[in-house]
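Customer escalation, tier 2.

The customer says the design service returned an amino acid string that "doesn't look like it belongs to this structure." They asked us to rerun it and document both sides in this ticket. The original structure tokens are below, unchanged.
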């Protein structure tokens, strides 16, 4: 089997719950398809939104966000909760200790509400086709933001996050950018939104590096989740201003 096909299948197998038939080895080729997993997840979540939006904007948005969380096996939800708890304590050692413990406190619950309730609310304002496109683009931006958060970052601990950080190189960053550029070509405003989100994501990454003296899997996953919500928010602002997202 071609090494790139193996990389694609391993990316789908590891980063989502989509069945691929076998267990696939994680390698640097896996990281070349990080953004593509977002595209596939966005399509799966966007199609129900496209049809349900004609009946209820709230149900369509809630189902779409729920499907996204399910496809990723709730791993990113867990990351947000761990980040929320650690965000509430002071000191590098305390933050590292709390983010790795198995308990969930008020900070974790609060962070879930801050990230996912607004995401659902913003999606309710789009028309069916624009919302469908926003969901797809949002997942791709989320995954790319996750990738750049790993690029040349210092890990703390020896978990999965550390393994992925060692695999992300310049080629991975470039190849994952190509699908984003193709999506962005549909509209200039999409380029502005995507660029703004990625700049904010990089700023958050920098701040986390200082606060936690490095990154781990939970922090990396949290950057992706925050980036999706920010993309929805900025797309909502442009939609309200009637700036014609995606030429739709």
């Amino acid at each position: 089997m071609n090494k790139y096909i193996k990389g694609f299948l391993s990316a789908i197998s590891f980063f989502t719950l989509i069945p691929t038939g076998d267990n696939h080895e994680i390698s640097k080729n896996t990281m070349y398809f990080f953004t593509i997993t977002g595209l596939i997840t966005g399509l799966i979540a966007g199609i129900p939104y496209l049809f349900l939006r004609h009946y209820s904007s709230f149900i369509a948005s809630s189902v779409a966000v729920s499907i996204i969380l399910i496809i990723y096996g709730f791993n990113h939800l867990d990351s947000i909760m761990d980040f929320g708890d650690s965000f509430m304590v002071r000191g590098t050692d305390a933050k590292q200790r709390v983010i790795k413990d198995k308990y969930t406190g008020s900070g974790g619950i609060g962070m879930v509400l801050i990230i996912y309730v607004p995401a659902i609310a913003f999606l309710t304002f789009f028309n069916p086709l624009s919302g469908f496109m926003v969901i797809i683009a949002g997942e791709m931006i989320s995954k790319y933001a996750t990738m750049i958060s790993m690029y040349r970052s210092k890990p703390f601990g020896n978990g999965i996050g550390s393994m992925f950080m060692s695999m992300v190189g310049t080629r991975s960053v470039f190849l994952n950018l190509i699908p984003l550029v193709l999506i962005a070509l549909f509209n200039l405003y999409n380029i502005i939104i995507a660029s703004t989100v990625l700049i904010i994501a990089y700023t958050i990454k920098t701040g986390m590096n200082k606060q936690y003296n490095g990154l781990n899997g939970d922090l990396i996953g949290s950057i992706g989740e925050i980036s999706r919500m920010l993309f929805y928010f900025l797309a909502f602002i442009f939609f309200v201003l009637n700036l014609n997202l995606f030429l739709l």
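Tier 2 assessment: The sequence is consistent with the input. The chain has eleven helices and no strands. Residues 3-16+33-247 form one domain. Sent an explanation to the customer and offered a walkthrough call.
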